[in-house]
Amino acid sequence: MLMNYTPHTDQDIQKMLDAIGIECTADLFAPVPESLRLKGLDLPAGISEMEAVALVQDLARRVREDAPELSFLGGGAYEHFTPSVVDAMISRGEFYTAYTPYQPEVSQGTLRAIFEFQTMICELTGMEVANASMYDGSSALAEAVMMAVRINDGERVLLPRSLHPFYRRVVETYVRGIGLEIVEIPWTGAGTLDLQRVAEELGGAAAVVVQNPNFLGVLEPLEEVGALVNPTPTAYVAAVNPISLGVIRPPGDFGADIVVGDGQPLGLPLAYGGPYVGFFATREQYVRRMPGRVCGQTTDVDGKRGFVLTLQTREQHIRRERAMSNICTNQTLCATAATVYLSALGPQGLREVGLLNWNRSHRAAEGLNALDGVGLKFSGATFNEFAVETDRKASEVLGALREKGIAAGIDLGRFFPELDRCILTCVTETKTGADIERLVAAWREA
User: Which residue of 16, 134, 414, 435 lies most exposed, with the fewest beta carbons within 10 A?
Assistant: First the structure.
């Protein structure tokens, strides 16, 4: 214990050095080549706490001054309105924890929040069981692919080229050690995955992954994919934007076996990349092959309702050979924020948010499509985001618009060389009609 800790004296250190047969601590680094050793750290002189706070505040002011006044960025991190009740609730002591409790029976408030989160995710996705959450959407998708391999022993996984590039990289990292072959499915002129290619590659596939909407903002034909995949042993894995589920049918209606996604749009702010929360739902028949934890409802000896951790399939809790994953925890605080957000909006409120996103993004797309030298890249239906193609390099257009105080989107050429004249633009309910008009006017001038 810290209260019993006694600092080592020089004599103590010398005894340890004598015991291992060296003269000084520098000898410990003898195996490291001299050219690789640091001679010292070139650090600035220390400053006081007050000076440090003033420095950080000055940096924050400069960032705000340099930042564009209007942002139409998306690509997996979305600006949505968060009701004040979300921060108010998750700041309370009953909920303020980032971790699953190790003594769950005395943490009924936390377990109740997790149970409600699982229930809401099932209702959103059309699935039968959900876990207590994952780190983020990308790790949730990677775990879904690994779970599909456990279900059917497939040797390949079909990933659409329109999958979020960061999600793809995480999946590639996860499966590298098990020799799973990744087959890329191209997109069509509509921006949707090529169904003919899916049919040709199904043999021996552990999973077919579909992102809806995909990274290009296009809605995929979930029903047609289900018709191809469901008669086969291949698992149907869908990665979804939860806001879209307020206005479109869930993947569970089309036979999806596993549904994952990122809960960032559900009340989590944009904070330099996180923390976010992944959700993971599946069918009850696969519950024992699902990673993470499941919180269940029960009754105590007095007949009162209580909550417990029903399943814990990580290797810390059960024998390694039976573990489903080495995922160590869930994102309880972020999951609670998503739960409060969904509770505050309710089904009708979530539908209204979805419709606002749909209507405003389509209004912006129509306005840009009407400009000379600008057109929509794909013909498929979109949600929240859409790709516009210009007659100039996307980087040039974005630079010109940034000078006008607008972050107009993402240069798709960063990820797909053939799309170096395309910009992915995101419009959520936070953008007003005036904001959209300003965007279109800036494009016209640029």
Answer: 16
